[in-house]
Design a protein that fits this description.
Pfam families: BAR_3. By secondary structure, the protein is mainly alpha-helical. Helices cover about 95% and strands about 0% of the residues. Helix 1 packs antiparallel against helix 2. The radius of gyration is 32 Å and the shape is rod-shaped.
């Protein structure tokens, strides 16, 4: 009688251990897939932010060069170059924050 009860108890415990092991394996597999997806998407976003950052840097450099080359006696052209420079600086600043964060 006692041996039968102990045998049933052992079988039941082994079944629970097997169930827990399966659950643990399934959870690890799911988490691994989700982490890989998250990392992949994060890297893609980082690459895009880096590309945008360098485009902004090139745009700022072009605006700086143009602003430096404009003769100041041409007020209208100098004003437009200054406005373009301010716009390029603001865009570069935003892209730099996106890239850094």
């Amino acid at each position: 009688m006692m041996a039968e009860c102990l045998e049933k108890f052992t079988v039941s415990l082994n079944h629970k251990l097997d169930s827990h092991a399966e659950l643990l394996d399934a959870t690890q597999h799911t988490l691994q897939q989700q982490i890989q997806t998250l990392v992949k998407e994060g890297l893609r976003g980082f690459r895009e932010a880096r590309r945008d950052f360098w485009r902004g840097a090139e745009s700022l450099e072009a605006a700086l060069t143009h602003n430096a080359e404009v003769p100041r006696r041409r007020a209208q052209e100098a004003e437009e170059a200054g406005a373009a420079l301010r716009t390029a600086r603001a865009g570069y600043r935003g892209r730099a924050l996106d890239y850094a964060l």
